[in-house]
Amino acid sequence: MHFTTLLLAAAGIASAKWIVPGARWLDTEGNIFNAHAGGLCIDRESGKFYWFGEYKPEGQVEGGGISVYSSDDLATWESHGLALDTIEGHPWISPDNVIQRPKVIYSEETEKYHMWWHADDAKYSSLLQGLAVSDSIAGPYTFVDATAPMGNWSQDFGAFTDYKTGNSYALYSNGDRLEGRDVYLSKFNSNLTSVDEVVFRFNKYDFEAPTIVQTEKSYYALMSHKTGYRPNNVVAMRADKLEGPWSQPFFVSPAYTRTFSTQSGFSWRIKGTKKTTYLYMGDQWDSVSLWESRNVWLPIDIDEREGSLQVLWHDIFDLNVKTGEWTPIKGKTYNSKNAKLAGDVWLQEATFGAGNVIATGIYGNESTITFEVEGQGQDQWVSFYHQNTDDMGFGDQPQGAPDRIGGSWQLRRISSVAVNGDTENVETLYQRDSHKGIILSSPLLLPLKKGKNTITVGGLYNGVDHKGADLDRIVVYPPEPKTKGGKN
Ligand SMILES: *[C@@H]1O[C@H](CO)[C@@H](O)[C@H](O)[C@H]1NC(C)=O
Ligand SMILES: *[C@@H]1O[C@H](CO)[C@@H](O)[C@H](O)[C@H]1NC(C)=O
Ligand SMILES: *[C@@H]1O[C@H](CO)[C@@H](O)[C@H](O)[C@H]1NC(C)=O
After folding, report:
1. If you average pLDDT over every residue of the chain, what do you get?
2. I need a surface site. Which of 45, 58, 332, 440 has the fewest CB within 10 A?
3. Could you say which ligand is closest to the alpha carbon of residue 365?
4. For residue 37, what pLDDT band results from cuts at 50, 70 and 90?
5. Is 73 in the pocket of ligand 1 (CB under 6 A)?
6. Cα 18 to averaged position of ligand 2 atoms, centre (Å)
């Protein structure tokens, strides 16, 4: 994995201009974009976007502090290191503390940037909100306090500024205890130093990871169910006013996709010169190694007449933050039905598969499937459309069963991908659980020759044979243009 990172950096393609949800994002120096469950804030001086998120050190669960990155286009990210570093022995920001879901808002009154987050001990028994401030957006932020909003608990933290009134609000679930299980929408005081008025309480729905999308007419509150780091079907509720009444919750993505294997957490409104676009900014958690969790940002489609909202999946899209327009990138599809099968791989009848079949039995380095594809002599994104039925439990993942009582399931299968038979440089493809009969895709950037190439997918062998997910098709995308020039 480090090897891949180095290669990508060396090849000078570290700065992505397209948004590739679920890919391994790299910053301008070729390091992993390591900022999870975060939020955006705009710098008063430069007008640049700053993204703050949980920094997850490799091999560690907590204790990474808050990282910060800046961008002009929401696709190319420059690292500014840690905005909030941990302090050994500190009661709330030591490496042992939970420091989660940071959000930064500028306070006109204090003329400082205020960072708020879920502050806690390692056992999640305090459930507080942390506040740290800084004169400059990138920090370093100075810890102020960790408090209980109006005496209540506060777990998953979100924040939202109403673009019409300028008022800012905190959104927080009040924990898993029986007396909690609500989500609060509370108003910050005018200088953003405390949360001082409950505007609405989403009673007993037991949701978390809240964010609000504001349109001309409506507010949509998006939240996930509580299944830890495993994804579920995120819902939204609509209202004309923040005080409510709020609608019943409804799914924001096709049922059983578990919101494309993501959890909600943040959203953003881009009022462009031509179009207003709303972005869903979720997390594709990897509970096996959190630092490898991916960011999944997708456009949102809103139907104000119906009062509904859908998060739209695109393997790759090009966003113009000036005009607000976004364009899905078109690729060429190759179906498993027409690929070359080896070992125990076979095409099983599947009503949901392309051509009514899906390739199954991908395992180790002998049971493989090989696609012959056209390349353009550059690094190109390839999306692998898979079904991962780990809920059935077998092989190296015997637990299975999310659909049964007490069920749990593995979040991922691991495949290996070799280009043109180069087994020395196989790429690792993580394939998230997708539920039976549901196909999702995961992207990889692959070095393709000009003309014919082979792409061989097997189960990963890294001391243990891994079973690859069932494969329906792959889509090969054109190389990313080197500059954005001439396109707008
Ligand atoms: C938090 O609010 C809930 C209702 O939402 C209430 O039952 C509970 O007692 C409150 N907890 C604290 C610590 O104030
Ligand atoms: C913020 O405003 C409150 C009154 O609402 C005041 O008590 C407090 O001192 C102010 N804090 C700062 C840092 O300005
Ligand atoms: C293929 O897998 C076997 C174990 O099943 C392993 O011994 C062998 O080294 C693997 N070969 C390659 C090229 O990865």
Report:
1. 91
2. 45
3. 3
4. very high
5. no
6. 43
Q: Which residues contact 68 (CB under 8 A, 6 or more apart)?
A: 35, 50, 51, 52, 79, 80, 81, 82, 83, 137, 138, 139
Residues 459-471: pLDDT tens digits?
A: 987 777 778 999 9
Tokens at residue 9, please? 């950096």
Q: Which two tokens stand for residue 352?
A: 């949901």
Distance 191 CA to ligand 2 centre (A): 6
Beginning with the edge strand found earlier in the chain, give each strand of the sheet holding 66-71 in spatial order: 36-42, 49-54, 66-71, 78-84
Query: Among candidates 227, 200, 221, 210, which has minimal Cα distance to 172?
Result: 210
Fold of 332-476: Jelly Rolls (2.60.120)
Q: How far apart are CA 76 and CA 155, in angstroms?
A: 31
Determine whether the shortest distance from the Cβ of 110 to ligand 2 is under 6 A. yes
Q: Which residues contact 398 (CB under 8 A, 6 or more apart)?
A: none
Q: Which ligand is nearest to the CA of 196?
A: 2
Q: Taking the complete model, does pTM exceed 0.90, yes or no?
A: yes
* Architecture (CATH level 2) of domain 17-328: 5 Propeller (2.115)
Q: How far, in Å, from the CA of 106 to the mean position of ligand 1?
A: 29
- Tokens 């090969």 locate to 476
Domain ranges of the chain: 17-328, 332-476
CA distance 333 to 446: 15
